[in-house]
Write a sequence for this structure.
């Protein structure tokens, strides 16, 4: 998954570079100090929020609001919205659901859907290369958050111009979010989450640091873990030739986005997982509920036969049913 991009770059990678130039710049890492400072301050503020959350400073109703409503809704805006609906087109959504997802997505402040999906499509198309925005071959820190602290690699800028985003640009809702993103994300990501807890008497400081900042940093790290941990630590039951892995811890933290070996093998599957256990895949549960009430439709998923064939052809043998360690029935 891609994540917030705090650099104020235009939507297209306009800086052209030829291959010689790219080679020259390959070893250079240019730190964007303003991003380093902003992200550092954000984390200091989040620590203040964590302290307030864990001590008696925070009202129980505020804790409930943040943990059951604030964090999950922002997360779903990314997982069910920017990721599964808009980046991968793994299902279709009717207008009310699109609007709901866009509101939740904007509250997550991980950049507009168009920018997020552009980075994510680059990630899938050029995985583990210099054109992958968070290339995991550059290490845990780079793929987790370091990629937001340095200038983009020339290969990423060059190839980024070729990625097709015309389907998302054609959507007036997404263009609206893109155009007014700074204003909308401040309102939905900071102002509203800070204001709501004050309605039941929460202190303004607590409301700000817990409901706005801590929620933001938690969901950021959730997204970032998919790019880092879920590209490093886990099994590869579907395709052993790629870096993404199945990581249950990341799945738990990210509402179901850690089944990453499956997801990179079948990126068009709305479940982003084979088994889709609801306890680790809240996003699937959300989409399924939306489908039941008629707001989501055309859910795409891989058939068991296709999955089994793929496991036997390219898996690492760790699959519970079709892996090499399978104990045959006598
Ligand atoms: Zn994806
Ligand atoms: Zn990935």
């Amino acid at each position: 998954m891609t994540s917030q991009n705090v650099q104020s770059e235009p939507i297209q990678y306009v800086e052209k570079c030829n291959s010689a130039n790219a080679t020259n710049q390959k070893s250079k890492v240019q730190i964007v100090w303003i991003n380093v400072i902003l992200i550092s301050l954000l984390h200091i503020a989040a620590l203040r929020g964590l302290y307030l959350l864990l001590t008696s400073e925070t009202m129980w109703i505020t804790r409930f609001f943040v943990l059951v409503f604030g964090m999950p809704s922002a997360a779903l805006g990314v997982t069910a919205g920017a990721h599964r609906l808009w980046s991968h087109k793994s299902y279709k959504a009717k207008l009310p659901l699109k609007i709901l997802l866009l509101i939740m997505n904007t509250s997550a402040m991980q950049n507009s859907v168009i920018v997020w999906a552009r980075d994510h499509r680059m990630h899938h198309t050029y995985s583990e290369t210099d054109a992958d925005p968070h290339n995991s071959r550059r290490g845990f820190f780079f793929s987790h958050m370091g990629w937001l602290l340095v200038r983009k690699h020339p290969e990423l800028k060059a190839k980024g111009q070729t990625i097709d985003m015309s389907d998302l640009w054609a959507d007036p809702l997404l263009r609206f979010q893109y155009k007014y993103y700074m204003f909308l994300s401040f309102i939905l990501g900071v102002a509203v989450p800070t204001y709501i807890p004050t309605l039941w008497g929460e202190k303004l400081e607590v409301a700000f640091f817990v409901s706005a900042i801590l929620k933001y940093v938690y969901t950021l790290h959730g997204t970032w873990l998919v790019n880092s941990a879920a590209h490093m630590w886990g099994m590869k039951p579907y395709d052993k030739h790629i870096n993404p892995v199945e990581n249950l811890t990341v799945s738990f933290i990210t509402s179901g986005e850690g089944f990453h070996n499956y997801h990179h093998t079948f990126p068009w599957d709305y479940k982003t997982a084979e088994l889709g256990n609801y306890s680790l895949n809240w996003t699937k549960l959300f989409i399924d509920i939306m489908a039941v009430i008629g707001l989501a439709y055309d859910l795409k998923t891989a058939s068991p036969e296709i999955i089994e064939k793929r496991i036997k052809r390219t898996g690492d043998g760790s699959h519970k049913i079709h892996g090499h360690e399978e104990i045959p029935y006598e």
